[in-house]
Amino acid sequence: MFKCQTHPELKSQTFLKNVERTLQDPEEVWEDYDDPTHKSCYYRKYSPNTMVKVVVWMDGDNHIVTAYETDFIKETKYQPGLKQVYKKM
Fold first, then answer.
1. What whole-number distance in Å separates Cα of residue 12 and Cα of residue 23?
2. Which terminal CB of the chain, N or C, has fewer other CB atoms within 10 Å?
3. Please, which residues have CB within 8 angstroms of residue 28's CB and are 6 or more apart in sequence?
4. 35: domain range?
């Protein structure tokens, strides 16, 4: 199954522009639960009730692992195990 079948926002040009904006100017960056050594999760508010989450492989050349719409920052549930790497002031 392709990711866009369960996340139709991946077909939206507006959403994809927000993915780019999230990478360039994130509001928060967290270590990834699955692999905090190699992956980071970038977040930015997308609409009043949702945000963009972009998971990035951070090993030499950075690569997007996945991107989708969410209504909360999942990584906050795993504190103090995961660190917030960045928060925009």
1. 17
2. C
3. 42, 43, 73, 84, 86, 87, 88
4. 3-87
Instruction: Please check whether residue 37 is in contact with residue 21, taking contact to mean a CB–CB distance below 8 angstroms.
Output: no
Count CA atoms within 13 Å of residue 74 on its CB side: 14
pLDDT exceeds 70 at position 2: no
Neighbours of 31 (CB within 10 A): 20
List pLDDT tens digits, range 6-59: 777 777 888 899 999 999 999 999 999 999 999 999 999 988 999 999 999 988
In angstroms, rounded to a whole number, what is the distance separating the alpha carbons of residues 16 and 19? 5
How many other C-beta atoms lie within 10 A of the C-beta of residue 53?
23
> Rounded distance, CA 64 to CA 23, Å?
10
For 31, the token pair is: 């270590």
Query: What's the structural domain count of the chain?
Result: 1
